[in-house]
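User: Before I run my own analysis I want an independent prediction to cross-check against. Here's the chain; please return only the C-alpha cells and, at the end, one sentence I can use as a sanity check.
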Amino acid sequence: MEKISKSLMVLGGTVCLLPFVPSWAALLSGIVLALTVGNPFLAKTQKMTSQLLAIAIVGLGCGMNLQTVARVGLEGMLYTIIGISLTFILGSILGKCLKVEKDTSVLICAGTAICGGSAIAAVASAIRPKSQEVTIALATVFCLNAVGLLVFPPLGHYFGLSENQFGLWSALAIHDTSSVVGSTLQYGETALKVGTTVKLARALWIVPLTLGIGFARSRQEPSGKIKKPWFILGFLLTASLMTYFPSLNPVGHWGEWLAKRLMVLTLFLIGANLSVQTLKSVGFQPFLMGIVLWVTVAASMLCGILFGFIQ
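Assistant: C-alpha cells:
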C-alpha cells in the first residue's frame, strides 16, 4: 500500500504540471489521495508548501502591467478600500459567531475580498496558519468560484446589466481571476476586457493587505511565529521588470505560465496534507461562513452597480 501511495503522489504531482489541469482539480485530487491511500511524504510536503507558494507568487508578478492596473486601481480606490474593509469586518463577525478558527477566518476573508486563491496563498505565507486551515479556505473559495462561473452570466442578463457593468460586477464579486475571465467571456468582449483589467488592479491589493496583516500579527505574537512576507517584494520586482522593460515580455509570459503551474502543483500538495481527523475537527462552519460572506458581498456590489454608486 505504501508503494502505491508513493507512486500515486508522484504521478499526481507530475500531472499537475501539465497545462490542461485546472487548480480546483489539483486541490481535489490531493484531498482524495490524502483521504484514501494517505500521504506518505507528509512531513516533506508540509515543508515544501510554504516555499513553493512564495516562489509561485513572485512568478505571478510576470503577468502584471503596473501602469495599466494602477490607473484602473486609482479610479476605483475608494470603493475598493470600502469593500475590502467591510468584507473583513463582516467576516470577522461571522467567524466569531460560527466559531471558526481565527486564521481560517482571515484566509476566507482575504480570498473573498481580493482574488481568491492568490490572496489566500499570499496571506498564508505571511501568517503561517495550519495546513488544514489553508486547505479549508481554498476549498471554500474554489467551490464558490465554480458556482459563480455558472450563475453570474444568467443573473447578469436577468438584471439587465450592460457588458461594462457585468465585467465590473464579476471582478468585484467573483474570487479568482480565472473564474472572472470565464464568466465575462460568456457575456461579451467588453465585459471580458473590463473584468480582467479591474480584477488585475484589485489583485495588487494583495501587497498592502499581506504586509498589513503580517505586521499586525507580528505585534500580537512577537514570539516569532510570523514570517515577514519578503516574497511580496519579489512579486513587485518581477511586475516592475515586465512593465518598464517590454523586451522582457516574452520571457515574462513563460515565467507567468511556470508560476501558474507551480501554484497548481502547490495546491495539490496542500490538498494532500489533509486528513480525516482534520476534517472532523474543522467542521462545516468555515464553508457556511464563506457562503454567507460571498453572497452578501456579491449582492452588495450588484446593488451598488445597479444604483450607480459603483461605476
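Sanity check: The CA atoms of residues 108 and 173 lie 14 Å apart.
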